Amino acid sequence: MTEDEKLPFTSHLEELRSRLIVCIIAVGIGFIACFAFKEKLFDLLRMPMLSVLPEGETFIFTGVAEAFFTYLKVSFLAGLILAAPVIIFEFWMFVAPGLYPKEKHMLIPIVFLSAFFFIGGSLFGYFVVFPFGFAFFQGFANETIRFMPSVSEYLNFASKLLLAFGVVFELPILITGLARLGIVSVDFLRKNRKYAILIFFVGAAILTPPDVVTQIMMAIPLMLLYEISILGAVIFGKKKPGDEDADEVDQDRENKEEKGN
Question: What are 60's strand-pairing partners?
Fold first, then answer.
């Protein structure tokens, strides 16, 4: 980016404001669209829990407005997930002015992959982790203790897990970006693999329910994603000084060709 293309700080704030407004509008539209299907969405969200409950058991609510606010939260959560591609796109568009032209060409794949990993992580939590985690908690019910999940408590618990899995599945994008900036290297990632695995298990213990099965089911995908991150760092990471000089020559050639056109 040349000196003439640099923007004052206030211009960056104005751009950030406009992009935040777009994100809020996208979430608002998603919320309104999802609120029309609030009952179906909540039925879909509670299916993993219903599958482990004894026959005839269901959810309860004890507060006067608990069911109403639960539907609002379900609609907001669904709207947020629905608007995730827009939010991710706006984030990368805000970052784009600080990138080189060659790096800007990678924005569309990055936006797509970011949305893919986030939604994929949430789906993994829903279809794979939820049934095992809820079966674990339901297993504490007996003749003297009856398991009667509250709609609001279940929603808070499930939404945190869905968002947590969506965020942690962004690991390959994050590490590949750090490698591209030269903050981490492929050798660093490989040498510190054992520490990364330890961090994954500690993080999984914090983010997931307090049972070993669910923790492992978050830690193992993170280990796989870490290996994908190393591959991404190999392909897109910052190159050695000799390679960087060659890239700069290619970049200057591309800029001259663009000016000539």
Answer: 150
Gyration radius (Cα) of the chain, Å: 23
Closest Cα to residue 146, out of 43, 212, 58, 66?
A: 58
pTM: 0.76
Handedness of CA 127, 130, 136, 141 (dihedral sign): negative
Query: Rounded to 5 degrees, what are φ and ψ at 149?
Result: -65, 140
Q: How many CB atoms lie within 10 A of CB 46?
A: 21
Q: Give 193-211 pLDDT, tens digit per residue.
A: 999 999 999 988 887 766 6
CA neighbor of 222 nearest in space, from 168, 173, 184, 185: 168
Instruction: Find out whether 158 and 45 touch, Cβ atoms under 8 Å.
Output: yes
Query: Shortest CA distance to 156 belongs to which of 76, 212, 90, 98?
Result: 76
* Cβ pair 201, 221 in contact under 8 A: no
pLDDT digits (tens, 9 = 90+) for 172-185: 988 988 888 788 88
**Alpha helices for the chain (secondary structure H):** 9-35, 38-50, 66-82, 84-95, 101-104, 107-124, 130-138, 151-168, 171-180, 186-191, 193-207, 212-236, 241-260
